Amino acid sequence: MVNYPANDQLKDVLRCPVTKGKLRALRPDELKILNDRISRRDLIHNDGTPIETTMEAGFISSDGQFAYMVLEDVLILLKNLAIPLAATAKENMAPVALGAEKKILQDFYDQVGWHKNGSGEANTFVDALKWEDLRSVAQEYIHNCHLRVNRYIKPNGCYLLDAGSGPVQYQDYLTYSEGYQYRICLDLSFLALREAKSKLGSKGIYILGDITNIPLQDNSVDGAVSLHVVYHVPKDEQINAINEIYRVLKPECSAAIIYSWPNSSFMSFFLFHRKVRKTLRTWIQELKKMVKTILRLKRQQPASSKATAPETPYHYTFNPDYFASRLKGIKLQILVWRSVSVPFMRMYIHPRLFGELIMKWIYNQEEKNPALFGRIGQYPLFVISKEQLNLKEKNS
Fold first, then answer.
1. N or C: which end of the chain has fewer CB within 10 A?
2. Containing structural domain, residue 53
């Protein structure tokens, strides 16, 4: 079992996702009472689903209204999986179901994205095979872009929040928390957190949670990163996700957030003919599905009721001006993380066509003009900073 920080330390960091109050660890006697109630089927989750296992450890809200399970060293701090301990807690509860888009995201990564590839490429996740350029010709460029994040967060501290951590899938990602005592991995995917634990061990704190309702107290972390996560958040909650990351930052600390612009970005101009081919393929696939459906109905064969994993996770991307106009009171910089997309690299960057030299040239241009390439490139880096002055004004 992971050696978490002392309970007195964690209770000053964790926050109940329902009441927004503090959490504390369950005492052994409280844990026994709750496990007895679970065994008698006397308790259920906040969304009405049954509790399938007893607790190995757990936390309770400071008002005693909600309990939260720890399973395989993962703190289950989702609002819908809270365990109401009194009738009044359930009666006063707002809607608790995980939103449809978030459920699609969770199912995709638990069932597909964070599974290892079975074709012989060691330690490669399906997510990377789908959406990253793993060729050697691109590796130096990608490595250098990964390391850019380190420039915009404090190099050391007690807690680094990794909001939407996934399995911390690239070795470069580990550098972000090298100077921190703990890395708080927050994700909707239980499988992701299990994989992250295999890399971080006792250096990690693993939370099954929602980036739009981060179960951490205000001003509790020394730095934060969020890599390719916010554009997977439902479009009307993306501002809230950034606000939540800002809320948990300590004064004079910053966060680095990797986003993606829509395909209308400047670099996407060079992919026009590829988009046309993709559109034609989509039409053909849809036509085939229609034909299959018609033939099945003619044969009067019922469709299979077996649930299938989503083929892709939910995502929605906004233009740069959207965030600049809506993030009120937050110091925001939009810089470059990586200007070229994976489709661009796969199409134009090849070892025998001076691919590595082209990537070095692109990287050097990004270094000279980080703000420009942050806006016209594919993947911007949002830097949000919390200044000491903001808190003084708030408390005055």
1. C
2. 7-91
- Distance (Å, whole) CA 275 – CA 283: 12
Hey, what amino acid is at 197?
A: K
Residue 66's nearest CA partner among 93, 37, 48, 103 is 93
**Which residue is it, tokens 């006063």?**
92
Does a structural domain hold residue 296? no
- Is the domain of 115 the same as that of 151? yes
pTM: 0.85
CA atoms within a 13 Å half-sphere pointing along the CA-CB vector of 110: 13
Say if CB 214 and CB 188 are below 8 A apart: no
Q: Is 222 helix (H, G, I), strand (E, B) or coil?
A: coil
179 in the same domain as 76: no
Tens-place pLDDT, residues 269-300: 444 445 544 554 565 565 666 666 555 554 55
- Domain co-membership, 15 together with 114: no
Q: Which residue has tokens 């661009």?
A: 344
Name the burial class of residue 52, with classes exposed (0-12), middle (13-18) and buried (19+) by CB atoms within 10 angstroms of its CB.
exposed
For 173-196, b/e burial (b = at least 16 CB within 10 A) is beebbeebebbbbbbbbbbbbbbb
Look at the chain and report how many structural domains it folds into: 2
Does any domain span residue 98?
no
CATH of the domain at 322: 3.40.50.150
Whose tokens are 């990564």? That residue is 109
